[in-house]
Amino acid sequence: MASPERNKQILLNLVKQPSNDHCADCGAPEPDWASYKLGVFVCVNCSGTHRDLPAISRIKSIRLDFWDDSLVEFMKTRGNAAANAFYEKCVPPFYYRPQEKDCVVLKDQWIRAKYERREFTGENNFLQQGYSSGIYEGILWKKGKDNKQFLKRRFLLSETDFTLRYFTNEDSKKPKAVISMKDLNAVFQPEKIGHAHGLQISYLEEERTRNLFVYHDNSQEIVSCFNAIRATRFAYLKNVYPNARDSDLVPLITRSSVKEGYMEKTGPTQWEPFKKRWFILNLTDRKLSYFKTLLDALELGAVFIGTEGHGYSVRESQPKGSRGGRWRFGVTLETPDRQFVFLCDQEQDQREWIEAFKLVISQPMLPQHYNTEANMRRMKK
After folding, report:
1. How far apart are CA 288 and CA 281, in angstroms?
2. Measured between alpha carbons, how far is 361 from 142 in angstroms, rounded to an integer?
3. By the number of CB atoms within 10 A of the CB, which of 10, 59, 305, 379 ranks highest?
């Protein structure tokens, strides 16, 4: 007869092992759930997708559920390391592996690709063609430039010339825009866009950031589109840096912002009225971009963030003489050219923005950052 307490203790010991102490799918620490069909330990969030795949995976809590002796013995012979060695054997280097804080659609499709479709075991490599063939064509819903409507647009991605094109209708031969992979970025923004599959595509247009907000109702399709973009960006980077290692290029494929949100901003004299703007702070290019609203297509302006040694600093305060806005929690950013004053709605926002600025300022500048700084200064003249 199974001993519940003994089996529970065995499972608790197993989940403490180095290969099992993080979720097999998203890397979240201290997983409390396990699939007794796959032999993996997973977090509570990933366990939800596993429950949706009863033919592939069966889930139990390692603390709360009853475990039969045979199931515990099975878990002892498996584990995350062995499972991932099989199910992740052939993951392309560009393919995005979701982390704990990533959105649901990324984690859901990663789990389905791993276990349900077995895209990475070496058995079904043809299933990777949707995002690794060097070309992607599909219909996405894109937010209109001057309104809130989302309209169907045809997108065409090509490794041949490292571009992303989109067309105003399915039959059009002349693209509305031809976007180079050089500065393109893609990141999921479901809350911001208001759709669970919302994807933000950003690029530079005459040195100013332009955003496209898109989605697809099919979760597999939008994640395939995202990974197709990553595949093309990766091919572009390998073309530009032929001697670089894959491990050095992968972090450069796409990027997430350090911090996003509304702040109020005043002008250079600090006597201008404060205006509410949506700010995005990126570490990769060390830019603080600002937009009129969170779903604006075109950047209003940007501030380069250098290091302390180059005259950049941030502090909590509001210099005297600045005309107050509706918000009261100030952030002052010092640059060699001028002082910027921002106001936050909440004290927590103020602390988070200051920490985000400090993070960027603390990182050493790379050669490309000096070019970015010079270009931005030239644009302001």
Report:
1. 4
2. 35
3. 305
